Amino acid sequence: MEGQIVAKNYQLTKKLGSGAFGEIWKATSLKTRQEFAVKFEEVNSKHQQLYGECRIYLWFHSDSGSLAQAIPNVVYYGVEGTRNVMIMDLLGPSLEDLFNKCQKKFSLKTVLMCADQMIKRIEYVHTRRIIHRDIKPDNFTIGEGKNAHRIFIIDFGLAKKYMTSQGEHIKYREGKGLTGTARYASINTHLGVEQSRRDDMESLGYVFIYFLKGNLPWQNMKARDIKEKYNKIKEKKIFTKIEDLCRGLSDEFAQYCTYCRKIKFVDKPDYPYLRNLFKNLFTTMNYEYDYAYDWTLLPQA
Length: 301
Prior knowledge:
single chain, alpha+beta, six-stranded antiparallel β-sheet, two-stranded antiparallel sheet, 34% helix
């Protein structure tokens, strides 16, 4: 596929990744020489997500607010041969990529600078009546060039609206399958409860702990199949006390997790309270908000 031209203007230059959804490539515009990301999905795939994801990106960018700028813009959507194609802004590496680059450990300062922006991103997504439903380090990236200090939120393939334009919240339901990534899924998601804003926030808490500790207690569980594995993760998550999960970390992380687990299904999370937990800790530690993340301090190759 390298060298192939898509949508008459975008030449594929490098494969960036692949997954259950399809493939993602880097491409260069023949007109402007600007680089973009191209996402492919087979038109006959069982669970098509690309069109829905494209609509969500367009929905965010129908808003002129500055926070929409921390979500990539879609420049093209169409069908090419046997594949659906979405072309969007090219961003930098994901936080998971950067975490691996830093030997799977982030400093408290880096986590607090990330947390401040990540909570802000989720709050913005929620103000647009959308829940993400797959919060994980892979779905936050840094920008390119002048935006290299800024954290973006991506991959809305599993996202959905949780509220109508009239302000009617989706109904509480049980018996749902697990949507998202088991490692970071909320306890209610494991229990088959319909997701709402609270679940995105709880998942974010697990991401912060993962960044600080390098792993979570329910990682690498041995199981015969995926069903047994999900069950073991669920049980470990339920029976791990928050004080044990956050042992060795600043109290604010346990306070964050405790708060998120108490949010009711239809409730709006108190985003300023959650951000201020970490902002106050940042101030207490006398850190400077200078965007000197751990990965920016690594020796340049």
